[in-house]
Amino acid sequence: MSHVKAGGSSKNVHNNAGARLGVKRFGGQKVNAGEVLVRQTGATKLAGPGTYMSRNFTIHAAQAGTVAFNKIKKGLFTGKTTRRTQVVVE
To answer: How much is the pTM?
Structure first.
């Protein structure tokens, strides 16, 4: 008879480093072009004028200026509108 020993449980294997997400430059701060403003998982905040969003949803400053956070209404695919935060460099 073939036999496989019991697998047992592995502990202490989920000890990954944090992703360091969050807002890196706050409202009113001066920034240069290319600086990281927000690191996020998914587009929780939207890129507004003077900013751009990279492939991993990080929002960068496209120009030098001052950071501001605005609340906007965003229409969803279902027709419902929700309030979202928009990051702007003025």
So the answer is: 0.80
Nearest to 40 by CA among 25, 59, 27: 59
* Chain position carrying tokens 């920034």: 31
Asked whether residue 42 is domain-assigned, the answer is: yes
Within 10 angstroms of residue 72's Cβ, the number of other Cβ atoms is 13
How do residues 14-46 score in pLDDT, each as one tens digit? 888 999 999 999 999 999 999 999 999 999 999
Please give the mean pLDDT across all residues of the chain.
Answer: 92
Are 16 and 31 spatial neighbours (Cβ–Cβ below 8 Å)? Answer: no
Alpha-carbon span 29 to 14, nearest angstrom: 37
Note down the domain range covering 74.
22-89
Asked if the structure places residue 2 within a domain, the reply is: no
What is the spatial distance between Cα 38 and Cα 21, in angstroms, rounded to a whole number?
A: 8
* Distance between first and last Cα of the chain: 74
CATH at 85: 2.40.50.100
